[in-house]
Design goal:
Layout (H helix, E strand, L loop, with lengths): L10 E2 L2 E2 L5 H21 L6 H7 L4 H7 L3 H20 L4 H10 L5 H13 L8 H24 L9 H21 L5 H13 L2
Antiparallel strand pairs: 1-2
Helix pairs in contact: 1-2, 1-4, 1-6, 4-6, 5-8, 5-9, 6-8, 7-8, 8-9
Length: about 200
């Protein structure tokens, strides 16, 4: 099972794991861990709310008590995966973290498909994942820009490189390569991303 962060007050969907909502929040986390297992085992295309409910020891109606829609559940699965990965990778450099995260897509193509689907669907402002996905990209871009500026100060990145442009390009390439990998698994996603990064570092 893919475990999430070992934080004392993990918050999901705005609901803290302490206080009167602790029991319900803990059950939501349990459901998300089961959903991750189902997706990793069966793939994204064949996933159903019924299968997740069954793995969680709930009826389909019981599942809807914790997640109003299947779309909301999938968004929270993506959030759970993101937090677990960041917790596991710790304080690595943001560029290294990005490259390592795409390197791991081959371990779970189902999750890669889920992420691609949620990302596209969330471009609709009415989608339940819109706020989180927008925040996710803004956070990643901000961390990358900060790291790239520090690299420039240390002379590890040419001064004529625009950190914001490089950050946006890294994220766009990472996402695009994942889609290409889903179509053609022979593509070395991490290798191509590493090649681009080395090109940006070259004086």
């Amino acid at each position: 099972m893919l475990r999430g962060p070992s934080r004392a007050a993990y918050s999901i969907g705005g609901v803290p794991t302490r206080g009167p909502y602790a029991k319900g929040s803990a059950k939501r986390l349990e459901i998300l861990d089961h959903a991750l297992e189902v997706i990793e085992r069966d793939g994204y295309n064949s996933i159903s709310a019924r299968a997740i409910a069954r793995e969680s020891g709930l009826s389909q109606a019981g599942l809807l008590h914790y997640f109003k829609t299947k779309e909301e559940l999938f968004v929270e699965v993506v959030r759970r995966r993101d937090d677990a990965l960041l917790d596991e990778l710790g304080d690595r450099d943001p560029v290294e973290t990005l490259i390592e995260s795409v390197r791991r897509i081959s371990e779970s193509p189902g999750l890669a498909r889920l992420f691609a689907a949620v990302s596209v669907d969330s471009t609709d402002a009415q989608h339940p994942g819109h706020a989180y996905v927008a925040y996710r990209y803004a956070r990643l871009r901000s961390r990358l820009v900060e790291s790239l500026r520090e690299r420039q100060e240390r002379g590890e990145l040419p001064a004529d490189r625009d950190p914001d442009s490089v950050a946006v390009s890294l994220l766009a390439l990472a996402d695009g390569l994942q889609v290409q990998w889903l179509l053609d698994p022979t593509i070395d996603v991490a290798g191509r991303l590493q090649d681009f990064w080395e090109l940006m570092r070259r004086v």
